[in-house]
Please model this.
Amino acid sequence: MSLIEVLRKKTNNTLFTTPSHSGRFFIFKKFQQFYKYDISETDTHAPEEALKRAEKRASLIYGTNHTYFLTNGSSSGIIASVLSCTTPGDKVLIHEDAHISHFNAVKLAGCIPVLYKLPVDKNFGVYRENSVENIEPYLKKEKIKVVIITSPTYEGFVSNIKEIKTLCERYNAYLITDEAHGALYPFSELLPESAVKISDFTIQSLHKTAGGLNPTALLHSSCKIDPIDAINMISTTSPSYPLLATIEANINFLNSKKGKYKINNLIEKLNKLKKTSPYLEFGGNDPTKLLIKSNKMAGNLLSETLYKYGIEDERNNNESVLLLCGVGTNSKKLIRLQKVLKKM
Model:
């Protein structure tokens, strides 16, 4: 029985257990359906084994040794990965402007951070992808236990994971890839290659581009280390089974014909949109990220102008604007965006 089926299962038992709302007392009535499916580790429901089976099926889909469902975002996956493969005093190579979870992971593990820089694309005002040439000098100088990279970057620049993994193996260092923005990669040949089968640990956010709820995510391990002990160390013993069930459903959708068609169809529509906007420059090598630069106005002003037309961007700087797209980006949204860009 899948985790989804466990939540659908009806019972006549009277439960004097947690959660005390009993699936019938709705303090926030708009969420009453959520309350109905909010179960715990009772003998009546026994969701633990279903969760293990769902995670095992996910590892087969992704081709990993282990894949775990996370309900505390990719941040928890980064922290668990570092805790799994380090001992206090180890040196961890991280970007000087990395996500806060990278720094928190190093701190919680009692490790020593070694900071590296990334090249900047001055045209778009954002960091570019990482490379062997960028990382190796640090590995030569310091005894690094773990290398953490972010690929794709927030704005869609993708690193060559295979080359970087080979480099890390040469220096006996683990590679952790923060692929939070690349959860669609394993499911389309039109997208860059995913790190899940290459990196020792790969973390993906389902809620960023893959249609998941906040803060659903995945931790993949393709090395000999099973990170479950570290995950349990930093996770609640009372997880949200409705959220966990949405992760199972999310993966099933992405891996289905319908899901893969939707991803490829989105990419085709985004590519067409770019071709109809010759007066704009697009950056990055992830087609689901619209990193836009205008030759008529600065990025911040472009962002303000878009907002006046009812278009809100993900982030912006003085040079460019980022519009984040995913499986929930439908034709209606793209048609409206295209009309606004033409007006401008």
Q: What stands out?
A: Residues 257-275 form the longest helix (19 residues).
